[in-house]
Amino acid sequence: MAALSPSAVPSREALREFARNYRTAGGRRDGGTGDGDAGCIVTVGAYSRTRNGSPEQVSGYQRSNPNCGDGAPENAVVLARDGVAARSAPSERRPVAPARAWEGQPNQPWREQIAAEETRRNDGDFGYGMRGQPGSSALGRYQLLRDPLIDAGWRDRVSGAWTLRARLAGVTSDAEFLASPTAQEAAFNDVMRVNERQLWANGAMGFNGQRVRGLRGGEVPITEAGLAAAAHREGARTVRRYLDHRAANLPAPLAVAGRRGDLSRFNEVERRLREFADTPYQRTLP
């Protein structure tokens, strides 16, 4: 029998409480009332112990326990009471807090703002388990798309399968990626580096510190934080096309109606340039 996971194992005090509740209810082996010889059947998961100074493995087993858990190993769980299925003993263990894997990562305030834009989740699993809209390849807290993950070396360009880089992080499927906040943060770091590299290569970073005229008027400040955020949304190539478009002062392209207003790619770039302009950001490349 496989060992039970720690989160599934009631505490010893919970087992004692189960016994007290049963005796109070008048349960008895012979079907009468009273608590004279009440007992439990417990299952004990496989575990390791030391005997005569040497470690040994103990296989899982079931046995009778008249005290409903007293003296049983910590991973003992009440299965039945004299052949009758027992009520589940309440666990006194606190639930594991959701992983806040972004804490301590590079540009933490910036990536928190990205997550607020992408998944809008400040509770539960903080968006780590979220998939994109139907038809989208977006995954996780930062809604990472297939192409950026390919560029970052996490997915294969031809098959789309998860690569060795991903497998080393414990990811071989979309489900495993969604279940691993640590892997998502590592993948996001790699995606950020690729975006920065592309922004430098295509000259977009050369606009840092400048201002351009907005699509519908007003000035748009250009900062590294805004460029990186816009690249995460629309890609480094679209960011450079937007900057060239504004430098030439061309008319705004047709709007694309959506919940937040105009969702055209240039307008999404401009929106992120504005919203992230004052967010602290330190480049990840040397």
Structural features, described:
This protein has 286 residues and is an alpha+beta fold. It has 2 domains: 6-85, no CATH class; 108-275. Helices cover 34% and strands 13% of the residues. The chain has 9 helices and 10 strands. It has helices at 12-25, 108-118, 146-151, 164-168, 174-178, 181-201, 224-234, 236-247, 265-275, and strands spanning 40-44, 47-51, 54-58, 61-65, 76-81, 84-85, 211-213, 219-221, 257-258, 261-262. The strands form 4 sheets. The chain has a 4-stranded antiparallel β-sheet with strand order 4-1-5-6, covered by helices on one side. Helix 7 (224-234) packs antiparallel against helix 9 (265-275) and helix 8 (236-247) crosses helix 9 (265-275). The longest helix has 21 residues, at 181-201.
- Give the total of domains: 2
The termini sit apart by 52 Å
State Rg.
29 Å
SS class:
alpha+beta
Number of strands: 10
Number of helices: 9
Per DSSP, what share of the residues sits in E-state strands of 2 or more residues? 5-15%
**What's the helix-strand series?**
HEEEEEEHHHHHEEHHEEH
Instruction: Give the mean pLDDT.
Output: 79
Tell me about the biggest sheet?
A: 4 strands, antiparallel
Residue stretches low in confidence (pLDDT < 50, at least 5 long) are: 1-8, 22-38, 72-97
Tell me, briefly, the overall form. Answer: elongated
Helix percent band: 25-40%
Strand order of the largest sheet: 4-1-5-6
